[in-house]
Give the backbone structure.
Amino acid sequence: MIRAALGLVGLLSAVAVVPPVSAEGNSDYSVLIISRERLEVATNCEIGVYLNDQLSGRVFQEQSTSFNLPPGPVDVRLRLLPGQVPGCAPGVEDQRSTRLNLQAGQINKYRIAVGQNGLELKRAGLGY
């Protein structure tokens, strides 16, 4: 019985040392959502999402990806990735990036579309 009481006291003291979890702890970051949910891009190829010239995500048809990023500017570039599907070699493509300025605590959603210069991002509503 004494062992159980000492164990309980030890457990309660360990819980008291753990700092409380706050929902506001993540406000130092911004959420970037890039979706391909609409069928605007008529290809079965996967699309690579490059953040600051580094491959950070892959998006297939009817999917989306999200990133928790620090606030500030981020360059986003989209390109077709070679894969298992025939005809997915990117060939000559536009190397321009879209610069986004992210704010702390903000949720940004963009959808992938085909524009005059190839793949581009269009601002989208959050839908909730």
